[in-house]
Amino acid sequence: MTFGEKLKKLRTDNKLTQDELADKIFVTRTAVSKWETGRGFPNMESLKMLCKVFDVSMDTLISDEELENRKILEDKKAKYCFWGAMAGFLLCVAFTIVCAITKIPYYMLGSFVGVIVYAIFAYYSTPKYKRVEAIKTNRAKFFIPKMIVVIVLLCVLIGVAFEIF
User: Fold this and answer.
1) Are 62 and 47 in contact (CB under 8 A)?
2) For 51-68, what is each residue's pLDDT tens digit?
3) Among 21, 36, 51, 145, which residue has the least CB neighbours within 10 Å?
């Protein structure tokens, strides 16, 4: 039985609507609906509150199978973020090249947007369960490679800017 199925069964056994459950744990009805249909998963605080409302243990609410499914979902999201980071990197490079060739400084804005897109997506390109562990164990090892790329991109942008101006 999946987490969503367990949650729906507990809710209906306790004669609660999605709205009533959402009010008890301070989330929206939409969040409860997503959890029950398997399109989302509650955060730790919501899980604790669900356990209190239904008077069940965390182990009862979440099985090992559900944790594996959650990791698979996080891995999938991280893969999309990796490609988002690559798109931001390519956007930065493309705008920088166009700016260097045309000598039109307004293209630098596109390059800076590319750097920002890269930085945001690069952070999320590691699944949350791995990211949290990496930050706990060695924060520098997690952040330094990403920051090196951002710094190199910014140095190239500054170099092109000095050439244009």
Assistant:
1) yes
2) 999 888 887 777 666 667
3) 145
